[in-house]
Amino acid sequence: MKKAIVYLNQFFGQIGGEDKADFAPVLKEGLVGPAQEFNRRLEAEVTHTVICGDNYMGSREEEAVQQILDALADKEFDIFLAGPAFQAGRYGNACGVICKAVKQRFKVPVLTSMHVENPGVEMFSKDIVIFKGGRSAAAMRKNIKAMATYANKLLSGQELFDAQTEGYFGRGIRHQVWRPDQKPAADRAVEMLLKKLKGEAFVSELPIPELEKVAIAPPVTDLSQATIAFATSGGIVPKENPDRIQSASATRWGRYSIKGLERLAGGEYKTIHAGYDPTAVDADPNVCVPVDALRAYEREGKIGKLHEYFYSTVGTGTTQAEAARMGQEMIEYFQNEGVDAVVLLST
Amino acid sequence: MKLEIGNFPVKDIVFGAKTCYSDGLLTINKQEALAVVKEDEHITEADLEIVMPGDQVRLVPVKEAIEPRVKLDGSPLFPGAAGDLVRAGSGRTHALKGCSVLVVGKHWGGFQDGLIDMAGEGAKYTYYSQLKNIVLVADTDEEFEQQEQQKKNHALRWAGMRLAEYLGRCVKDLEPEQVEIYQLPGITRRDKALKNLPQVVLVLQAQSQMEEPGYNDLFYGWDCNHLLPTLVHPNEILDGAIISGSFMPCSSKWSTYDFQNFPTIKRLYQEHGKSLNFLGVILSNLNVALEQKQRSALVTAALAQTLGADGAIVAEEGYGNPDADFIACIVALEDAGIMTVGLTNECTGRDGASQPLVTLDPKADAIVSCGNVSELIELPPMERVIGELQSLARDGLSGGWADDEILGPSVRKDGSIIMENNAMFCGDQVVGWSPKTVKEY
Amino acid sequence: MQMANLIPVATTVGANKIVPTISIPYPLGDPATSPQEQWKLRYHRVGVALDALTADIQEQTVFKVKY
User: Mutation test of the interface with chain C: which of B248, B296, B331, B359, choosing the one with the most C Cβ atoms within 10 A?
Assistant: First the structure.
């Protein structure tokens, strides 16, 4: 039989109320409070209950997480369930923090449940599965049932449906599915248009997510003393593509010395980017990596120095996660080698 | 304009002494058909195969699909592209239904080519596994592009068109089992009942991102890269005015067969006179410079507004930077007061966590999503491969790779494969067949 | 700072300093024009990008180019 461990706060863990919110984490064998209901619903045995005070987790997070992970280290379990946390903000935070940590450390599925207004939803719904729960403990049975139903499917390897169908908050992860009714896209498009024209409600299959804001970097104060690096997602590489950067969906990047070069020569550098017509860039790579213009500004003293390497990868089909990782890896070089600013050219 | 398409359902296909159609049986004289293929001396090797739904066959690299047809007045099937420049979209066309001519490279594939599994788990990823297929598997002397990732596939694609026309000729003088009639009066000649319905246009953003000739969709033989949005009668599209190009990851591509049978056009015809007045098609394109993208969006919106459109459907043949054309077009239409629905696919990455389109705008509030190009697909070996399986890994197909640190090569020693949906032949079916959608997890 | 042709893509992903390039396949020099014209355009736009690094901006900004 599969094994589960449940996480509760001091209140549902039957330690006490607000006065016990500083309660340090303990791992108890067997079932405490809501763990009994989980045990009844799950096609798995709940072997232990973790109890931790919400304030303890809130104010001494690192310590709390470490203590709990240490206590779990020698336990065998197939799934980790926290809450439900309803609308309790500190409990929601605690469930989110511990679920994320357990998932990362033990690679087991983690589940929790919160009310939509619990700040924990906003904080953790991208990282973990949070079921849409009720406002208060009146919804306890219902919320546990939803979590357990999903957990059972997960544990037995059954097909899992999308967030909306299963009842949890979407994590921003989008995958293609075959519609059970097989309704072709042409029908869906025409029906959606007719509804839109009549002013009736319709559901877009691609809701536009809110755009992320990036913090603005402080300006370079003295360009004439600055070292400037150049990076591109246009796939310019030495002609033999030494780092074997992929032509699409890239996971690799390279940096190539331009020491002593006045410009990039056609025939010696080329693009391996499959998403655009390579003719112009192959003939004159400077139209994508403008070493010639940068050198001119270096000679004129407009910039202090052009960094010794240019940085390159391929942007087509490349996931945001891979792009972010590659960017982080490049930043290490920039920082270690005294680069003050980077000009990035995308194609 | 009135177009009649006479349908000849194909129930079985065999090779025989004479190319003919009788009672659902299409017989093909292989030698004669191959002679038509080899009219172009650039074709160095060619063979024909018949594959049926359920056959344990994997086809790769697939370059094109065409429905075999004939025009009864003797005009060419693909005017301007393969044959004289005459108008398409009226008169009578006979079509062999439920089958397609598939063009497969004997060896060499490219970025734009795809894969079809006729049976098993892989069959659900493309429309063409449901069809009875006449497969032309051939090689050419176009050595200049053998090692290129981007291939024009000129000799093979044109051989496919000749073959489709040759096969279609066998039903020229026969009585079809059923006749579909597509007719729309001139926009100013429509009766009051039609004018009282919502006025709707369909905007097609055909693939045209290559600036060098030979890769893009052709409209009456004209490279869609050199096109400003223009008003087109839907019958012209159903009747061969557009042929598919040879650029874009394959699952996002629209084959010539897709254009000939464009499901969203047919669906709008069904609603015409009932719930809407189908004004026509605005043929637009997909560009590689922001100014070009904006120009096409603005001209499309101006055309739609001039026509008095209340609503529009915009369909995009591509993803990645063409998403900017797609969103710009929807925004321009919405800004002109035209209610718009978008029809496209997404690229959310193998992990599903990337931004679905490269450009987003809250005005694009009604989108039908047909698939995720980067979904990972693992398929077992298939009894038989037509073409060359290694092309998926070797030749830079958009959904294949030679090697990967974590996933290994796309093509494994035992013949099993791992690939992205990108390389499924016309897999996302944005023309309107797609039974797929994209959901959040 | 980012040089890009597809300004809407750059703004969607959150780039703060943006200098336009002329196209995707040849960002900084149209092969249909003379090498002198290409150089003038490239030198100018790279210069705008370098100046943009020193600009103290408060919100997403697309810098103007002349050529």
Answer: B359
Amino acid at A229: A
Query: From the CA of A317, how many Å to the nearest CA of chain C?
Result: 14
Beta carbons of A281 and C43 less than 8 Å apart: no
Compare all CA atoms of chain A with the CA of C9 and give the residue at the minimum distance. A346
How near does any CA of chain C get to the CA of B216, in Å?
15
| Domain contains B35 | yes
Taking only the tens place, the pLDDT of each residue in B95-117 is 999 999 999 999 999 999 999 99
- pLDDT digits over B120-166, tens only? 999 999 999 999 999 999 999 999 999 888 999 999 999 999 999 99
CATH number of A3-166: 3.40.50.2300
Question: Does the pLDDT at position A212 exceed 80?
Answer: no
C15 chain-A contacts, CB cut-off 8 A: 214
ipTM: 0.98
Contact criterion met (CB < 8 Å) for A287 and C42 = yes
Shortest CB distance from B289 goes to which of C5, C9, C12? C5
Domain count, chain B: 1
SS3 A129: strand
For residue A206, the model assigns a pLDDT of 98
Cis peptide, bond prior to residue B198, ω within 30 of zero: no
> Containing domain of residue B70, as a range?
2-423
pTM for the predicted model, two decimal places: 0.92
Q: Which parts of chain A fold into alpha helices (H)?
A: 34-41, 54-59, 61-72, 89-106, 119-124, 140-155, 163-166, 185-198, 279-283, 291-300, 320-336
